Amino acid sequence: MQLTGILRNQYFACIFLILTACGASGAKEPEVPLGNQPSSPSAAPAARRTSSQSEPQAARSESERATASAVTRRSSVPLNYPRSQVSWLGVALGAELPQRVGVEVVQVFPNSPADFAGLQAGDILTRLGEVELHSPLQLGELVRASSPGREEPLAFERAGKVHLAQIIFEGTPDPEDRVRLALVGRPAPEIAGVVTFQGEASSLQEMEGEVVVLEFWASWCHACRALLPRLQEWDRQFVAQGVHLFGITVDRPSMGIEVARRWGMRHDLASDSVGQVSRLYYAQSIPLVVIIDRKGVVRDVMLGASEERLQELEALINGLAGEAA
Fold this sequence. Notes:
The protein is α+β, with helices and mostly antiparallel strands. The protein is built from nine helices and 15 strands. The longest helix has 17 residues, at 222-238.
């Protein structure tokens, strides 16, 4: 089956709010920010982080050393697509905080400006530049209004203390590249809490020593259905060489069983209806395919599908399948 760039574009219609987080009110706000306008790729700029004067000098020095170390550990994962000229910060935020200034960080994208500046989940962002922050949407507008390469001070609270980070904005990576920056070259997050409704596997531990082709899909995702024959072809071609195709859906098990029957799915399937595993894999959009080697390290990620990327993944799987366990 030939799959073109049209199928890659289809995945934008298959979006579920997994990376967004909920506050006590249950309201959801978007990741800050999304953006897919093309531009030229740019290298990640240096980031500096200092603490406020309310911290002792020793604490400031320790914080600065930790940030400098984090900068030296930046990913060398190359981008597959041009960056947008729309800036990004690289965080997912909770709902508005009632009766107080600030917005809460619930997730930080690895290798993002927020990550380089040392932000962490649980931080309360209170001020960007001279602007006091009151809502995730407001922060998103401020970030989008900044141009890549611009530097802004960002005040935040952590464990009751006020800190100051220096943010250097970058162009937003393509959605696939954002996931690749977060996962490639790192140990694959463990799969836990899913409900197996077809097959036996329910964790990476049970697939230890195998090459895992992990797909995130859903019953309403047309691009997922179009991709399925290619995944099944890989399953038949490589299963004897220790390659394991495993699908995770946000559908309830009862729905998953029905769709698996209707689509002719034969591989191991599990339900992640609460989104716990999907969040760990940054599966904000689907179909998302993650290739994990025999040592449990993520080797590549594909979001949507194009014939070029499918050929690259197939060559990778073929190479990994030939490696000793």
